[in-house]
Design a protein that fits this description.
Rossmann fold
Length: about 120
Protein backbone atom coordinates (compact mmCIF):
# COMPACT_ATOMS: atom_id res chain seq x y z
CA UNK A 1 0.00 0.00 0.00
CA UNK A 2 1.21 3.50 -0.76
CA UNK A 3 2.10 5.69 2.18
CA UNK A 4 -0.35 8.30 3.37
CA UNK A 5 -0.19 11.89 2.22
CA UNK A 6 -0.28 14.82 4.64
CA UNK A 7 -1.96 18.03 3.45
CA UNK A 8 -0.86 21.48 4.64
CA UNK A 9 -1.82 25.01 3.68
CA UNK A 10 1.70 26.43 3.94
CA UNK A 11 5.22 25.14 4.48
CA UNK A 12 6.15 25.49 8.17
CA UNK A 13 9.55 26.68 9.36
CA UNK A 14 9.90 23.39 11.26
CA UNK A 15 10.56 21.71 7.90
CA UNK A 16 13.98 23.37 7.56
CA UNK A 17 16.48 20.66 6.72
CA UNK A 18 18.98 19.68 9.41
CA UNK A 19 22.66 19.43 8.47
CA UNK A 20 23.22 16.57 6.04
CA UNK A 21 19.55 16.33 5.02
CA UNK A 22 17.88 17.64 1.87
CA UNK A 23 14.23 18.66 1.60
CA UNK A 24 12.76 18.38 -1.89
CA UNK A 25 9.90 20.70 -2.89
CA UNK A 26 8.46 19.63 -6.23
CA UNK A 27 5.75 21.67 -7.94
CA UNK A 28 2.86 19.63 -9.34
CA UNK A 29 -0.38 20.40 -11.17
CA UNK A 30 -3.81 20.28 -9.60
CA UNK A 31 -4.60 17.18 -11.70
CA UNK A 32 -1.51 15.44 -10.30
CA UNK A 33 -2.53 16.47 -6.77
CA UNK A 34 -6.04 15.01 -7.31
CA UNK A 35 -4.51 11.73 -8.48
CA UNK A 36 -2.16 11.56 -5.48
CA UNK A 37 -4.90 12.08 -2.92
CA UNK A 38 -7.11 9.48 -4.61
CA UNK A 39 -4.38 6.85 -4.27
CA UNK A 40 -3.47 7.47 -0.63
CA UNK A 41 -4.87 7.87 2.84
CA UNK A 42 -5.19 11.63 3.44
CA UNK A 43 -4.24 13.24 6.74
CA UNK A 44 -5.17 16.90 7.02
CA UNK A 45 -3.24 19.57 8.87
CA UNK A 46 -5.14 22.47 7.27
CA UNK A 47 -6.08 24.82 10.09
CA UNK A 48 -8.89 26.89 8.56
CA UNK A 49 -12.31 25.42 7.70
CA UNK A 50 -12.76 27.67 4.64
CA UNK A 51 -9.44 26.55 3.15
CA UNK A 52 -10.17 22.89 3.94
CA UNK A 53 -13.55 23.22 2.21
CA UNK A 54 -11.98 24.77 -0.90
CA UNK A 55 -9.27 22.10 -1.07
CA UNK A 56 -11.85 19.33 -0.57
CA UNK A 57 -13.85 20.61 -3.54
CA UNK A 58 -10.79 21.10 -5.75
CA UNK A 59 -9.11 17.78 -4.94
CA UNK A 60 -12.25 15.64 -4.66
CA UNK A 61 -11.56 14.21 -1.19
CA UNK A 62 -12.69 15.08 2.33
CA UNK A 63 -10.10 17.34 3.94
CA UNK A 64 -11.30 18.26 7.43
CA UNK A 65 -9.79 21.25 9.24
CA UNK A 66 -7.27 20.24 11.89
CA UNK A 67 -5.13 22.34 14.20
CA UNK A 68 -2.44 19.72 14.74
CA UNK A 69 1.18 19.90 13.68
CA UNK A 70 2.20 17.95 10.58
CA UNK A 71 5.03 15.47 11.14
CA UNK A 72 8.37 16.68 9.83
CA UNK A 73 9.31 14.92 6.55
CA UNK A 74 12.66 13.98 8.10
CA UNK A 75 10.96 11.97 10.88
CA UNK A 76 10.06 8.92 8.84
CA UNK A 77 8.58 8.36 5.42
CA UNK A 78 6.20 11.31 5.25
CA UNK A 79 4.90 12.67 1.95
CA UNK A 80 3.46 16.17 2.31
CA UNK A 81 1.26 18.05 -0.14
CA UNK A 82 1.46 21.79 0.46
CA UNK A 83 -1.46 23.69 -1.07
CA UNK A 84 -0.57 27.39 -0.94
CA UNK A 85 -3.16 29.96 -1.88
CA UNK A 86 -2.67 33.70 -2.01
CA UNK A 87 -3.14 36.63 -4.34
CA UNK A 88 0.66 37.03 -4.54
CA UNK A 89 1.04 33.50 -5.92
CA UNK A 90 -1.80 34.12 -8.37
CA UNK A 91 -0.03 37.22 -9.70
CA UNK A 92 3.27 35.33 -10.03
CA UNK A 93 2.01 32.04 -11.49
CA UNK A 94 -1.49 32.66 -12.82
CA UNK A 95 -2.76 29.94 -10.47
CA UNK A 96 -4.87 30.61 -7.38
CA UNK A 97 -3.52 27.52 -5.60
CA UNK A 98 0.02 26.22 -6.00
CA UNK A 99 0.65 22.57 -5.15
CA UNK A 100 4.02 21.25 -3.96
CA UNK A 101 5.08 17.78 -2.91
CA UNK A 102 7.54 17.99 -0.05
CA UNK A 103 9.63 15.03 1.03
CA UNK A 104 13.01 13.93 2.35
CA UNK A 105 15.20 13.70 -0.75
CA UNK A 106 18.37 12.82 1.14
CA UNK A 107 18.63 9.16 0.02
CA UNK A 108 18.18 9.99 -3.68
CA UNK A 109 20.55 12.96 -3.56
CA UNK A 110 23.27 11.00 -1.77
CA UNK A 111 22.83 8.05 -4.14
CA UNK A 112 23.21 10.38 -7.13
CA UNK A 113 26.46 11.72 -5.67
CA UNK A 114 25.32 15.34 -5.71
CA UNK A 115 27.39 17.63 -3.48
CA UNK A 116 26.12 20.99 -2.27
Amino acid sequence: MKRSIHILHSLPNSFLAPVGKYLVCEGITEAQARQLVREREVQSYVRHASIAKTLSARLGVAIPPDGGECPNPFNGKVLVLVCSASWILEEMTGEDIVYQLVYDGTPAILEAGVNF
